Every structure is written in structure tokens, then in C-alpha cells.
Amino acid sequence: YAEKLERSLRNGEKEAVAKMLIDINNNQRQEIREPYRIRYGKELIEALDKKFSGDLETLIFALMETPLEYDLKQLKGAMKGLGTDENTLIEIICSRTPDQLRAIRAHYEKKYKKPLEAEISSDTSGEFKDLLVALVTGSKDASHDTNDQQAKDDAARLFADGKGKFANSKDGSYFLKILATQNQYQLRKVFAEFEHLAGGSIEKAIEKEFSGDLRNAYLTIVRASTNKQRFFAHQLFNAMKGLGTRDNDLIRVIVARSEVDLNLVKEEYKALFNKTLEDHIKGDTSGLYRDTLLGICQGNAH
Length: 302
Description:
Blueprint: H1 2-10, H2 14-22, H3 26-40, H4 44-51, H5 54-64, H6 67-79, H7 86-95, H8 98-112, H9 116-123, H10 126-136, H11 148-162, H12 174-179, H13 184-198, H14 202-209, H15 212-226, H16 228-240, H17 247-257, H18 262-273, H19 277-284, H20 287-299
């Protein structure tokens, strides 16, 4: 495979290279790197870098990373330089599992010589910062245990919280205490009890009570706990709606879910937006970049 790739790279056959990379899975892509380096005395990534540019290069690079490495680079990139890309921070930190977050935190510090929570703290503030730090430092319950009585009590606390009584308490809201610590199965019970009590969804309450990044982070936790595929369908839609495409967001979701649940994300997409994900991508992107994205979407069909 390394030989075929090198031949296509030498001949400048970008389509062939892109197709080869999406025809195999992430593990197989990792396995080519070493034989390629031994055989040609250079890194495959460098060879790809010389041939590709723009959004297509970003996509090819994303495919070449392990899922963990990719999350690390996305988080680092979100906090680099001036301005923070909160959307990326929220998506990764609020939708990954406790096990994934544990790995992200350990490897981030190893790779960048700085604790992830320290970088987050210097880039964000207020309850938004407290929430992200709580999640990356492992406050989330990793078990599947649920407790009906606790769900009732917590729903009542959130309902009272939503009335603004605790909004100014120095410890942050009950939303922080509950959404940052409980597992998704327990949270689903809390949300159901909340709806019962409030006569409206927890999402509506969050939209009313919070604003900006904090609101988006809480909504992400709710949506990712309730229906992860629907959450990612929304992320894809948001990346393409309006003028201009947020290509990094589009690439991140498609690559990150490509070997997990992209087929289910596509089903949710169609149900939500009456349009297939593929059609939306066709209308929003072009050239080999578009074809490669479509190839990844198709790739999960078999």
C-alpha cells in the first residue's frame, strides 16, 4: 500500500491518493506510516503536505491522525493565538465520554507539557470555565448507575435554579453541579423529571437562563446525553448553514464520527432537515474536497 501511495503521490494523482486513504480505516492508515518511512526515508504526512493544500489538506491530515491525536490537535488549535474557538472546545469536551476525556487530558499534558485544564482556565472564564475544567478533570461519573429519587430531587433543584434563585451563588448554578458530574443515563432521567415538573424541556430552560458559550455548552451536554447522533447532525448543519462553510467543524465531525456512527448521524440529519447530508455537502463544497467528504460519508455504508 505504501508503494501504491508513493507512486500516486509522485505522479501527482491526488484523486487516487485521496481515494486510497478513504478506502481503508484509521488503524490501517496508521499502519502504513512506518513502512512508508522506512522505505522512502520520509514521513507520509510530509509527502501529503507537499501535494495537498487548503480544506482538502485539512481533511487529509484529519484522516491521518488517530482519533485521540486529532482531538488533542483540535483542542490545541482552538486555544492557540488570539481568540478562542469555543465551538470546538465545547463540542469535544462536552460530547466525549469520561474515558475519552481521561485519555485526552493525560495525553494533552504529555504532548504539550501543560495541563489541559490550565490552558482552558487561561482561555475562558466564569461558569463556562468551571464547567469545562470540571469535565476535563474527571468530575463526570463513568458508571451506568441511575437513581430515580435523586433524579426527582435534582430536577426540582434545576427547576428552582431556573427561576434565578441560585444564578448568582458563588459556587455556580445547580446546572453546573448536575450536568458536569452525572452520567448520561442519570441525566436522561433528570431531564425527563424536569420536563414533567416544568412542563417544558430542559433545553428551553437553558436557552432562557443562559447565554453565549455557557448556554451552548449546557445544550451540548443535554443533546449529547440524550441523542448523540442528533447532536452531531445539528453540528454538521450549523457548519454549513448561512454564508460560507465552517470547514474545520464540518471536517471534524465527519472524520470523528466516520468509524463510529456516521450512518446514524446521516439518518438523523435527513429526519431533522429533510435533506440528505450528502446533498448539503454537494451544495456547500466543491472539487476533490467535496468528493472526498462524500466518499467518507459513503464509506460507512458497508
